[in-house]
Amino acid sequence: MSGSRVNSKNEKTVAILKIRARLLDAARSWFKQNNYTEVQGPTIMPAVGDWPGSFEIKYFDKKAYLTQGLQPYASALVADLEKIYTIAPAFRAEKQSTQRHLTEYWRIEAAQQCTLNRILHSEEELIAHVCQALSKEAAEPFKHFNRSTNELANVKTPFPKITYDQAINTLQKEGFNVVWGQKLTQPLEENLSQQFKSPFFITKFPLSFETYFTKSDPKKPELTLSADLIAPEGYMELGSTAQRITQKKILSKRMADENTEPSEAKWYLSLMQKDTPHSGFAIGLERFLQWLCKLEYIKEATAFPRTHDELYP
Amino acid sequence: MSGSRVNSKNEKTVAILKIRARLLDAARSWFKQNNYTEVQGPTIMPAVGDWPGSFEIKYFDKKAYLTQGLQPYASALVADLEKIYTIAPAFRAEKQSTQRHLTEYWRIEAAQQCTLNRILHSEEELIAHVCQALSKEAAEPFKHFNRSTNELANVKTPFPKITYDQAINTLQKEGFNVVWGQKLTQPLEENLSQQFKSPFFITKFPLSFETYFTKSDPKKPELTLSADLIAPEGYMELGSTAQRITQKKILSKRMADENTEPSEAKWYLSLMQKDTPHSGFAIGLERFLQWLCKLEYIKEATAFPRTHDELYP
User: Fold this and answer.
1) CA distances (Å), B158 to each of A41, B125, B291, B305, in order?
2) How far apart, in whole angstroms, are the C-alpha atoms of residue A69 and residue B129?
3) d(Cα B154, Cα B141) in Å, to the nearest integer?
4) Is the pLDDT score of B214 beyond 60?
5) pLDDT above 90: residue B299
6) Contact state of A306 with B44 under an 8 Å Cβ cutoff
7) Which fold has domain B3-301?
8) Across B84-98, average pLDDT
9) B93 contacts in A (CB within 8 Å)?
10) B95 vs A18: CB contact, 8 Å cut-off?
11) Inter-chain contact A60–B308, Cβ cutoff 8 Å?
């Protein structure tokens, strides 16, 4: 869309934008069929502890930040509406590889009153529904990409699931020098991804990996009730999932342990209303498109990309 | 949703959120039926001349701003996709009355290759479709508000249209001390609004009122091909509409006349691709809900409002 892309890349860009619109339509249809209420959280947020990488805004005489997702507000919304979703922009002020990272991206985010296993089922059903719908409704724009719509028609639930522990074992057997407790860096994640033909989940990451609101596994408290959705074929993480802490006392302690300012913990905790199981997931729209269309650079998945070194037009 | 609203106001808030979700669903259905492609523009924007009231962001080593709408990008998108729409957050860093103004709001925005009259027709069809749909599908949540769904079922096209010139004449006859060239301030707009039972358009505002990209009326160059959509019953502007300049030379001169920095004009002009008629409109989602539900304060139309004096939770 931008100046340099008008000529050579324009047909591909138009095809991506058509696939993107179909994808969103298919996702919303799935949410509607499954009785999720669409909501919008704020983009402009007050500070809250331990979320590095937020863009800062001058908000009149206060400091504010651009959202990294609906999570802080999901608890209050789920208490009243039970099953919710939002499709909205989110932001990361990080100087990461522009191959896989945008500073502004769109998130497909859902939350509901349920456990981790139940939300993983919702998440895989959503992804499979979108792939099926695109295989039927987007054959024409997919001709511009190295992806057959048959492959999309074959994306079916249940998705494979491996635990973080299993992932580490697998990588060790393949000769990677990796120990339990290490993060799955890009080469490790890519290796695992190459072993799958369908999107798959890695579940139960160590406690130290996750944000303070993620619930511990009652059976193994050093692990969390968390999961990443990974694209197959050597692509990367599409989304993250977690069962959240719903007891104010526990969350309050976790926030204090992480040195969250009391004023920041206070507004956050004021949103917690119900002590019933609550889980949520978020899918990165452009990551999803990058895998679907086998794009080399994530910025090809949007008309006017924002990366740490690209602000125009 | 927020702390103080949990008890007494909670039922109303939940009802609003349900109406809001239905409204968005009805709007998207209309866009889909009428072959608009959904798009997303960037939230983080470079500077462009003469748009006061933008929030500034520190974007690594550059200055950037939060979007006030899709307009800068609509021209490039419309060139390729013909009819587009977006539903996305937009921002105003202005200390205005919190009764009618949010600093963060959601915009339902559309653009297409057509003249002002054609886009006004699309706009009124969209609004009427949404009102009809809500009258059928949202009877239950509307019970919480002083609005009968029959009134919504009676919102039909074509909407009344008066020119700015006629509006000034009408106000003068009613005894208001107002002359041609004056803006329609809140009491004036409210008075006009009270004369209508259906949303209506005020068209052809003076050139000095409009942003530089608005096309002049070829028959009367002191006027523009512009329109505001006004809610009836004493409510306010719901949206704005304009046919846009599509000749780079004319726009370039207008930007220079308004002392736009050449670097700012450059990226903006790089997005202009086709010299065919191009018009667009934007509806403020919360303003629309404020009128539909007869809300006293616009912040009642969203779960977590942002006003110049309200940033929490």
Assistant:
1) 34, 8, 19, 33
2) 31
3) 19
4) yes
5) yes
6) yes
7) BirA Bifunctional Protein; domain 2 (3.30.930)
8) 96
9) 60
10) no
11) yes
Distance CA A153, CA B129 (A): 34
**pLDDT tier at B50 (50, 70, 90 boundaries)?**
low
pLDDT 10s digits, B9-21:
689 999 999 999 9
Q: How far apart are CA B58 and CA B291, in angstroms?
A: 36
The minimal CB distance from A42 to the residues B3, B21, B304 is found for B304
Q: From the CA of A259, how many Å to the nearest CA of chain B? A: 20
User: What pLDDT, in 10s, does the model give residues B181-206?
Assistant: 999 999 999 999 999 999 999 999 99
Strand-strand pairing, B216-217 and B83-91: unpaired
ipTM summary value: 0.96
What's at B248, amino acid-wise?
K
pLDDT tens column, A218-262: 999 999 999 999 999 999 999 999 999 999 999 999 999 988 989
A304 and B42 within 8 Å at the Cβ level: the answer is yes
Residues of A in contact with B274 (CB under 8 A): none
pTM: 0.96
C-alpha span between B298 and B220 (Å, rounded): 36
Residues 6 or more apart from A247 whose CB is under 8 A from it?
A275
Beta carbons of A83 and A36 less than 8 angstroms apart: yes
**How far apart are alpha carbons A291 and A301 in whole angstroms?**
10
